[in-house]
Each structure stands twice: as C-alpha cells, then as structure tokens.
Protein: Tripartite tricarboxylate transporter TctA
Amino acid sequence: MDQLTNLAGGFADALTLSNLLFVLIGAVLGTAVGVLPGLGSAMAVALLLPLTASLDPLAALAMFAGIYFGGLFGDSIAGILMNTPGNSTAIASSLEGYRMARAGRAPQALATAAIGAFIGGIIATVLVVFFAPSMADLANRFGPAEFFALAVFAFVAIATVVSDSAIRGLAALAIGLAIAVVGIDQPTGTQRFTFELRTLFDGVDIVVITVALLAVGEVIHQASKVGFSDEAKLIPTGGQPFLSRAEIRQALPAWLRGTGFGVPFGVIPAGGAEVPTFLSYGAERALDRRSGDPQFGKGSIKGVAGPEAAGNATAGTAMGALLTLGLPTSATAAVLLIAFRQYGMQPGPLLFERNGEIVWALLASLFIAMVVLLILNLPVAPLWAKLLKVPKAYLYAGISLLAAFGVYAAAASTTDLLLMLAIGLLGFAMRRYDVPLAPMLIAVILGPLAEYSLRDAMANSGNDPMVLVSSPITIVLYVVLLAGVAWAVLRRRRSARADF
Structure:
C-alpha cells in the first residue's frame, strides 16, 4: 500500500524532537484557548499565523495540528465543568456532560470526552490517509467550471443552509467578497476599492483579516458587555479520570455512531461541527428513550460520547477536504488554508505531488497530536478550567497585544494595524447583530478562486455560460446544493409553524 509507505515516511519526518515539541506546544495552546468562552482553535491558529512565519513549514504545521484538535477538546472542558461551552461545537456534549459533573461524575465526563475525541479523530484521519490520494486524483479532473461550482457550493451552503438566517448569511458573504476584490485586478491592471492608497494595491492581507475578525472583534465584543462576573463557578472534580469497563461498554457504541455522523460532514461546507454533533446527540437521545432505564436528563455518558466523537471526526475529514480539494469546510480549516499559503503551498489536487513529504508528515503529526492530547488531558483536564478564573480585563488585553504585535511583525506596516482595528470593529458589529463570521471568512479566501475560475471558464468557452453546467461534476454539485437549500427552507418553515 503506497499510503502506508508514505505515512511511514511522514512519521519518520515528524518524529523529531523539535517537531514533537511544537506538537506539544500546539496542543497546550489549542486546549488553553479552547477553554475560554467565545474563543477556539480558529482564533488560536489566527493569532499564531504571523508569529510562525520564520518557522520551518513542517514545524509550524505540526504545531497547528496540535492546536486544531486541542481547541476542540478545550471547548468541551468549560462546557462540562461550567455549562459554558468554549465554542458552539461543544454545546451538544455539554448538555449531558454538565449533568454528569453535577452528579459527581465530572472525571468520567471529561474522560469520555477525551477518549471520544481521540476515537473520532483517529478513525477520520485513518480514512483521510487511505482516501485522500483518491480524492486528489478525482480533483485532477476539475477544470475552471468545476472549481467555480465548488466555490459557489461552499458560498451558498455556508451562507444559507447552515446559518440561522439566510439574509444574515448572505450579507456576511457579500462583505467577504467585497473585501476579497480590494486591490489591483491582475488581468486588467484596474484598481478596485483602493482609494488611491498604495498600501491597498496588493489587497488586504488575509492574516490581517483573520486576526481582526476572530480575535480583535471578540475582544471588543467582550469589552462591550456590562455586568459580567470574573468569578467562574467551577464544579470541583475528584477521583480517577478513567472509565470502568461497564462505562466503556456503554460509551463505545456511541463513540462509533458519533464518528459515523461526523465523517461525512467534514467534506461538506457546513461551517463547523455543530450539525453532526447535534445529530449524534439526537440519535443517542432517541435510542435512550427506547431503553428500559433512560438516562438522558440525568447525565448520560452516551450524550457526551457521541457528540464529542462526531466533532473530532468532522475535524479529521475536514483536513482531507482541505488537502485534496483546497476546500475549507469550517472557519478553522479556512485559517489553516492561509497557513499553507503562507509557506507557498496551495492545497488542492497537486499538493500531494508538489509537497508530498510535508503533507504526509502533517498527517503523521495529526496522529501524534491526538495521542499527545489524550495523554495530556486525561489526568489534567480540570486544571485547564482554572483559566476561566483569569480576570477578563487581563485576558483580553493580552489577546489584543498579541494580535497587534503579530500583525505588525508580519509586514511592519502601520496601515495593517489600522485595517486590523477597522475590521475588528466590523467583526464586533457582526457579533452584535448575529451576523455569522464563517461565510465572510470563506468568501475572503475562496473569492479569488471563484473569480479567476469564472474568468477562465468563460474565456475558454467563448463566453458561453452553459460551460458552467456542462460536466457531470458541476451538475452534481449544483443539484446537491439545490437539495440542501430546499431542505433548509422546509426545515425553517416547519420550525416557524411549530413556534407559531
């Protein structure tokens, strides 16, 4: 098997002292940031992007691998011990996890989450190892029309299918596309929205956008709140953070079912793991009702196991979609795409040919990161929650300083600092009025791809618009997209009728 040979070579490159150290650093930073409400792995990666420019590409990507999965587990710690999930992807597992903690089973809830994250992530990454080359071969058949269809699929799916409000989702998409076209249009040399400022001729740096939107916007949003308390009410934990054989027998089917829900959603531009985690939670709850002794509402271990495995399985296969198609299916994947570009690598069908050694080393680093996280978090998970005791004024001041330092260090430009502040205020306004951030991020990153693909497709066909729907791949993408939009419309209508 070529995949196993390549993966063995990847482990040989990844298993060096320096790379293991960077994986550990990433796991610690990702978990620490993930614990804090409103933050997450996307912000951790965004903050570190400008600071890793001088690192070796493999070392930086190995660290990001630790952050990627560490942030997801950190999200769950705060939800289980405080009923305050660090991010929306941990809401489902927090519902029963917090009840387990209140019943004196916090160590078991944390262990269930840690092992579920490990199982879901490992299975998904194994699938990526075996099927990523096949996906890359399929992606080689993509031409300009197919890439345009893929970008449109991502735009509409994230803006309308996943967002609570289609109007707000489309508004965020429009904002992102507007920012994406700033600069000089390469084919024509036309200035677009530069206001005659030379610093905007090359467009707005994507690192500035991500740091401002994810970090600065969140800081301003938190600062605008009045009356919050710095005293976090943590549920004390005690006992061994391990599961008994009976608890493992209960959780194992839920871990596997949750993984089954999460794997396919990783390759769908759904904006994150919220959908599969709640689908897993709903499935476990439905199965629990049929049992002789229902546990949901009392602290069901299955209610933690399923969603946690689903979230990490989604993250694992999202990495496969990013590597093979160049398609970011979540906000964190979108920021990771920027990390690749920072080192002159373009995720997509040619990545395995041009940068095969680094790609396989990255996949090996994902396995290493999940093992490190399991070892790191099983015994000390409750300690991470102590970060919630840090006064918010000091915490967010530190984040602001790190964001400003990182953006300025990348290009030594005061204009970038002003842009960071302006886009940070925009991010604050979007949070205040419940405008989702993911559509804007995806639009900024995939906007140029969509534009250039559309131009190439039309130029190669003599401006015949039918070329955009002339291949089986484009037809399938548009049909699936229309079906998803129709399903979302029906779901919202039923929900509105039920509320009425």
About this structure: The two ends are 57 Å apart (CA to CA).
